[in-house]
Design goal:
Chain lengths: 158, 700
Amino acid sequence: MQTESETTQAASEYLTFMLATETYGIDILKVQEIRGYDTVTHIANAPEFIKGVINLRGVIVPIVDMRIKFNVGEPTYHEFTVVIIMNVLDRVIGMVVDGVSDVVALTPEQIRPAPEMGAALDTNYITGLGTQSDRMLILVDIEKMMSSEEMQLIDHSR
Amino acid sequence: MKDHDQRALNIDMAKFNQVFFEECGEHLAEMEQILMSLADVEPDDEQLNAIFRAAHSIKGGAGMFGFHDMTIVTHVLETLLDKLRTHEMPFSSAMIDLFLEAGDVIAMQLSGYRDGAEVRQEAVDLIRAKLEHMIEGEGAPPAPLEMTRVESRAVSGLSADHRYELLFTPDPDLFQRGVRLENLMAELEELGSLSVQAQVSDPGDLNAFDPTLCLTTWRFVLETTASETEIREIFEFVADEEQLQVRDIPRDSRAAGPDAAETQPESFDQVKKENPGAAPAAVAPATAQPSGRRTSDTSEMAPSAFGRRAGETEASIRVGVTKVDQLINQVGELVITQLMLAQTAASLDPVLYEDLHRSLLQLEHNTRDLQQSVMSIRLVPISIVFSRFPRMVRELATKLGKQAELKTIGETTELDKGLIEKITDPLTHLVRNCMDHALEPPEVRIAAGKKPVGTIILRASQIGGRIVITVIDDGAGLNREKILNRAMEHGIPASDSMTDEEVWPLIFAPGFSTADAVTDISGRGVGMDVVLSNVQSMNGRVTISSESGKGTQITISLPLTLAILDGLSVAVGDDKFIIPLNSIVESLQPTIGSLKTVNGKKMVQVRDDYIPIIPLFELFNLRAQVTEAEKGVLVLIDAEGEKAALMVDALLDEHQVVIKSIETNYRKVEGTAGATILGDGRVALILDVASLLQMHKKSM
């Protein structure tokens, strides 16, 4: 009993989503909401993976398509296309993914350090690999990734 | 007659005083918060700078509003902080206590002005002496020479032999005889510790009130070793025997006597009892360092301005900005919902659904009204800031022996309350710098072939979706050599080969000052870095242009984060954009004959002008339906004097739009001044014509 309650306490929850065939997990506390893909307003001279901005209840939110950014999957937009709205670095950012699976709780023992490997994402942003039954999750430091220069979401010159 | 002017000025000042009180309170709170967080640990440079800026801002504000005794403590405090900041002096934990004590004294002075609370002058003098002592040398005993007067006064409260109560009921024509009460009080003060109360028994009909008459009864309480004769001597030429009553109060009555004058509430009661019929009985507590103007201020102003906290309730409430923002967002949502409803209803038969249409029209009016009211909560005219300056300029001019004229243009420009609050400090610094550094003394100006009176212009306007505030002076201009030398002394990277445009921004570096002498006006080098950091925190820009001998122009450009904008929506392909109406000159459909090519650049001839064409689809890499100018629509825009013709597919509609920042969650988008939400809930970018022109020039 003792050990079990301890492990539950130490477990952190991750929202898992799909990019092509790989499953990724991000800290659930960073996720604000999940919504369908709406028409976005294109932003002039923005990189291709920044789809544009949407109106989220009066707030202008940029939308990034991870599939274009990391060149995986098919960037198609239909009624099942999902956008994860996240709160990172005091900003609200939307991320288009292939699909959202579920929320999993992982204890530290279930997380292994990330090996050098050929994931679509740069290993710099990968904090570890989570395993649950037969599934493998690639855990991503979404804050670090979204603030990186290559995402071009934040003005680094300022 | 002078009193008349004074009174009018005072009433005007009342609302600005209120602003100062609030700001001063905030600065004090900030200072205290930092000090408390230190807990005897040495503060880092950032914290020291923050405390220093708070003290500096209080001093600046107090000086500007004429609360000169507040500047005394802050000035000494600031000097000490400056020494710490430049590491001229080591930090000791005793300083924190001292700073906190100084903060309390300033707070006491503040509440003295605001609420009419009692100000203990001994405390003021004591803290000043302590601070000066700290500056002069750690550990040494209080310097006897300089401090004796101050110290003795502080001590005299305890050891004074006598305590006199003086009731002075002067002739009404006292002022007309040229008697200055403040001189009298200064003389009394030299004898010992003094407190003054002005009592107006019955001013009579206020409409017939003659401000040149002295109707006040002055009550002085003097603790001194001097004899009654010495006191009477001071009043010799002013008061007749019966006009001055001198009473020796036994020392122990202070604790027991009900007529002890030490505590303010008692005296209030006392006056009320004495004058049961007099309606506006005014009791003006004054400090022992009386400036004649202030004592008369308080007696006249007591019920209306200074006593407001105690008496009347204010006709406004302070609400958190986030609450207002939330309200604005929610109303914005409501407007969009209303527009969606209207769009849906438009497809319904107007005859069958007449009632529905009528109600929807009503709804539209109501939501518009609501939106306007909500938006107006946050907007304030910049005159609130500008009108602080004439007095400051006048006072500084007298102090510095310079002549200056202040002109303000565009005072009705409205901007966000948040911006107003943040722009006040930078503008104060800039105007002060103009007076202190930029404008030359009259002799120098005449020698340079200029008018002896210097001009400072404050101009505000809304240009291309930004609020632009310019401070212009016709002074000496910036001194390139001096700036470069000073920069190198301070280890700021600089070289002689830098262009003027690169040199001017050096003055924004922290601690930079080219003033030869540090005055209590400026020259400590806090001004400009505060200006830059405040403006940058508003996502604004500061640019400087200066010409030696001709003057300097400092331009602050702020985004319209929360302002409303009248705009024209235009279509390019599937995208919609908003062009601010105030930058549109006209729009036209060009004829083939009017389109020319000059050096390979497309131009359109409008009457006698040739205007370059900027195809928006090219600039923004869009898929447009129209790519030839003769089939599209040209919108003639004017960006700070420069004209261009923006080519779009079609004009859509005129809107009043709410400007939303893109930068909150994303980065700056070149060529835009923000975004807005259209009736269908979609986002449209608002174009910034000035930056479009720059983009166009770069792309060529």
